[in-house]
């Protein structure tokens, strides 16, 4: 055991029991705490102000990721050394990586997102699969979006699968949760953001939108359910309903892939001449 390290925590500890309960949504909501598993997520949580509360680590992980342990302590988190079985009991993965953090909720009020006048936003409406939600959040982060909005009909942001699928991006950009889709669209439109609904049966083609030069302004993409897309009443709220063109023989694109294509198309258009972003010369 490393010098100065805490003693091995007991599997019967109340801290272990409390962490284990966070796998369930009702306990997460009650405590306003969630789990972040693995070195990448824990490192990001430690670097996000006042977020990481506790960290459970196996001895092997504490030695391998000594820098992360140091960052967790510097962030004020309680660090517990734990046996492999304790980590397995807390973790929601089949093959735990030896680090499980307990984090405070970090979602951002929707009004704060609007006040920041975002130029690129992903709105998840009726998205039910946590893996897809986390992956779209990661895509939005990679494309340079300023915010993500999860409507009240979408999956829990803090579902362990969603947190893992975001691969740390959850800690990089503001995310609003529980916003009714009508309010999300109206608020963004009032903030000068054009609303594009992504739908495979859309009347507008993404290539045509790019060719017309109509995507350089502030934009929010609305993405729907994995199986049935967006309902008609949601599509009707948008300024345009856009399909990603299928140039080959594929039947369709899955949600995360379509989201990546749409978000990067907007990011490129906004960085082009006349767009609302500035190109940085290298």
Q: What does it look like?
A:
This protein has 282 residues and is of the alpha/beta class. It is 39% helix and 18% strand. It has helices at 14-21, 25-31, 39-46, 59-64, 66-74, 84-90, 110-115, 130-143, 160-166, 181-190, 206-212, 232-235, 255-271; strands at residues 33-37, 52-57, 78-81, 99-104, 120-124, 147-151, 175-179, 194-198, 204-205, 219-223, 240-243. Strands 7-6-5-10-8-11-9 form a seven-stranded parallel sheet. A four-stranded mixed sheet has the order 1-4-2-3. Helix 8 packs parallel to helix 9. The longest helix is centred in the last third of the chain and has 17 residues, at 255-271.
Continuous helix count: 13
- Distance N to C terminus: 47 Å
| String of helices and strands | HHEHEHHEHEHEHEHEHEEHEHEH
Helix vs. strand class: alpha/beta
Q: Specify the helix fraction band.
A: 25-40%
Main sheet overview: 7 strands, parallel
Q: Give the integer mean of the pLDDT values.
A: 91
Uncertain regions: pLDDT < 50 for 5+ in a row?
278-282
- Strand order, largest beta sheet: 7-6-5-10-8-11-9
Number of strands: 11
Cα gyration radius (Å): 21 Å
């Amino acid at each position: 055991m490393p010098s100065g390290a805490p003693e091995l925590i007991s599997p019967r500890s109340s801290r272990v029991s409390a962490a284990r309960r966070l796998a369930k949504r009702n306990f997460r909501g009650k405590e306003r705490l969630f789990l972040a598993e693995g070195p990448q997520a824990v490192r990001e949580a430690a670097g996000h102000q006042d977020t990481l509360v506790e960290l459970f680590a196996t001895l092997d992980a504490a030695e391998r990721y000594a820098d992360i342990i140091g960052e967790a302590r510097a962030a004020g988190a309680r660090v517990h050394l734990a046996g492999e079985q304790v980590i397995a009991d807390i973790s929601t993965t089949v093959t735990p990586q030896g680090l499980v953090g307990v984090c405070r909720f970090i979602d951002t009020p929707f009004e704060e997102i609007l006040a920041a006048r975002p130029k690129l936003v992903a709105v998840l409406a009726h998205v039910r699969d946590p893996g897809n939600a986390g992956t779209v959040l990661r895509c939005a982060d990679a494309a340079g979006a300023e915010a993500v909005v999860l409507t009240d009909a979408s999956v829990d942001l803090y579902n362990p699968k969603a947190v893992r699928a975001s691969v740390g991006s959850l800690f990089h950009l503001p995310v609003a949760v529980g916003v009714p889709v009508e309010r999300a669209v109206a608020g963004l439109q009032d903030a000068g953001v054009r609303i594009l609904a992504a739908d495979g049966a859309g009347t507008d083609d993404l290539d045509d939108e790019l060719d017309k030069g109509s995507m350089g302004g502030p934009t929010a993409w609305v993405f729907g359910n994995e199986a049935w897309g967006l309902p008609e009443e949601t599509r009707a709220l948008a300024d345009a309903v856009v399909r990603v063109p299928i140039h080959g023989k594929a039947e369709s694109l899955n949600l995360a892939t379509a989201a990546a294509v749409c978000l990067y198309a907007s990011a490129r258009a906004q960085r082009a001449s006349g767009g609302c972003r500035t190109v940085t010369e290298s």
